[in-house]
Recover the amino acids of this structure.
């Protein structure tokens, strides 16, 4: 496995200001998406950060964003990762510009930038992931399958060390982005503003009437009123399962509670499996948004 520290790989000790430069470069390219989806690379970058991290298994202490194994086949080809070559490709010029950063740090920092620039909460973030090798790739099947139910969600997320409240909070990332028929088979966005991070996903889940869509694709729900929004079977269990639904209601009622819980859970997700000795600092950093730096 990788043995190089962030310092050794860089040839110098990168500081917060160096990572802020990387953040800024990512933040500036989010909107250079042109006709791509809803005009932002933000959502697909959040999905990359999540899929790079969500392979963690606490029993074997394998997977997670350390080593950035999605660069290698077969992990890059796992069906769950369909479409993420786009996200990795968007970040490749950033890696060329700052060759000292590891892929794991770059991908997770890009996820942080995407959330924060989309008006989301601050995500405490630390540097120190190192690049691993092909032999470190994780087996297929560690990421959730949207066609399944509450038991499956718990199996997957408990394996990472999360609880029911954190499963619900993390799912709120579906405020962002959309499903693509040529990636997952599902189709459409969860919310009316898929490039803004908000609690709208929970408000819609809680307040709208959802019905099974009649179509040729995999089982998904549509909102009865406009039929323009979607929910996956795994999203819908967040309002049907007794333990999940109290958190869905809490987050629908109060965006600040959602922001606080999401920030804590997402920050932890991005750190799963990274040995504590690797962190460049013990105290996490708060990267500034582009808007904050203009003040
Ligand atoms: Zn997602 N997710 N996800 N997710 N996800 C998709 C898209 C996005 C599940 C899932 O199967 C899918 C989390 C949890 C779970 C994002 C972030 C996070 C898509 C659509 C599917 C099918 C892919 C496509 O077709 O492009 C399931 C079953 C989950 C279990 C709870 C967590 C946790 C996330 C981050 C914290 C994001 C941002 C997208 C939108 C990507 C895009 O390209 O727009």
């Amino acid at each position: 496995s990788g043995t190089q520290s962030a310092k050794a790989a860089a040839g110098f000790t990168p500081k917060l200001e160096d990572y802020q430069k990387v953040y800024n470069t990512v933040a500036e390219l989010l909107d250079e998406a042109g006709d791509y989806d809803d005009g932002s690379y933000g959502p697909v970058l959040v999905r990359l950060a999540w899929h790079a991290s969500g392979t963690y298994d606490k029993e074997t202490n394998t997977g997670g964003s350390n080593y950035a194994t999605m660069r290698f086949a077969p992990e890059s080809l796992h069906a769950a990762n369909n479409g993420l070559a786009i996200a990795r490709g968007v970040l490749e010029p950033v890696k060329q510009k700052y060759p000292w950063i590891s892929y794991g740090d770059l991908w997770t920092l890009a996820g942080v930038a995407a959330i924060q620039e989309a008006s989301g909460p601050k995500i405490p973030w630390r540097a120190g992931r190192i690049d691993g090798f092909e032999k470190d790739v994780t087996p297929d099947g560690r990421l959730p399958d949207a066609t399944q139910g509450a038991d499956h969600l718990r199996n997957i997320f408990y394996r990472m060390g999360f609880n029911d409240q954190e499963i619900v909070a993390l799912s709120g990332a579906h405020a962002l982005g959309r499903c693509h028929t040529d990636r997952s088979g599902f189709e459409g966005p969860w919310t009316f503003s898929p490039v803004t991070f908000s609690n709208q996903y929970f408000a819609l889940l809680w307040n709208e009437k959802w019905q099974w869509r009649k179509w040729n694709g995999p089982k998904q729900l549509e909102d009865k009123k406009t039929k323009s929004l979607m929910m996956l079977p795994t999203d819908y269990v967040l309002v049907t399962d007794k333990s999940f639904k109290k958190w869905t209601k809490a987050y629908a009622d109060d965006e600040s509670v959602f922001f606080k819980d999401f920030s804590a859970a997402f920050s932890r997700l991005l750190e799963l499996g990274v040995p504590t000795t690797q962190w460049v600092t013990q105290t996490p950093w708060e990267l500034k948004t582009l808007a904050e730096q203009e003040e």
User: Anything to note?
Assistant: The chain has a mean pLDDT of 96.
